[in-house]
Design brief:
The N and C termini lie far apart (54 Å). The longest helix is centred in the last third of the chain and has 12 residues. α3 links the parallel β1 and β2. α3 runs parallel beside α4. The mean pLDDT is 91. This protein has one domain. 21% of the residues lie in helices and 16% in strands. By secondary structure, it is α+β, with helices and mostly antiparallel strands. The radius of gyration is 18 Å and the shape is globular.
Length: 166
């Protein structure tokens, strides 16, 4: 990891040099056809404009507020680069407890600022997910959905046929 940019990167939790990896060893373990993208997220996220398929899910495990903000720029790319609703998992909003996550630091701060800066695209928690699952788990609270209200498919009805009224 790079050095924290400021207090929003939670320097009391994360530090430069965390999560070192052996790239050669990792590459040997990857399945054929798997693409490993290494680099500054601010630069690599722009390459998504060339992806053959639209984004439908993103796992944000960037630890820092600053890196998360840079990754969220993927949702500023043309509508064709994503589905109208993109499921997102935010790793660093629950653990560790001593991080004292809040809307002014870390990934939660990035989500809040992202929503404040955009009118037509919003990140929202998947409301009551834990109560729709047969076995609720903590990760249920880490799932958000990006709503792209201007996407040409956003208002397409998802039900196969009309449901009877109750």
């Amino acid at each position: 990891m790079p050095s924290p940019a400021d207090y929003r990167d939670l320097p009391y939790v994360w530090s430069k040099g965390f999560y070192r990896m052996d790239q050669a060893k990792l590459r040997k373990q990857l399945s054929p056809g798997t693409q490993l993208v290494i680099g500054d997220v601010k630069q690599t996220v722009q390459n998504l404009v060339h992806a053959p398929d639209p984004i439908g899910f993103v796992a944000f495990d960037l630890d820092y507020y600053s890196s998360t903000m840079q990754a969220l720029a993927a949702f500023d790319l043309p509508h064709s680069t994503r589905l109208p609703r993109v499921y997102c998992y935010f790793d660093d909003i629950l653990y560790p407890e001593f991080a004292c996550y809040n809307p002014w630091t870390g990934e939660l701060c990035a989500i809040r600022e992202f929503n404040e800066q955009r009118k037509e695209v919003k990140l929202c928690p998947l409301h009551l997910l834990r109560w729709m699952r047969p076995h609720p788990e903590p990760w249920n609270d880490q799932i958000y959905v990006l709503h792209d209200f201007q996407h040409h498919l956003y208002s397409v009805n998802l039900t196969l046929k009309a449901r009877p009224t109750r």
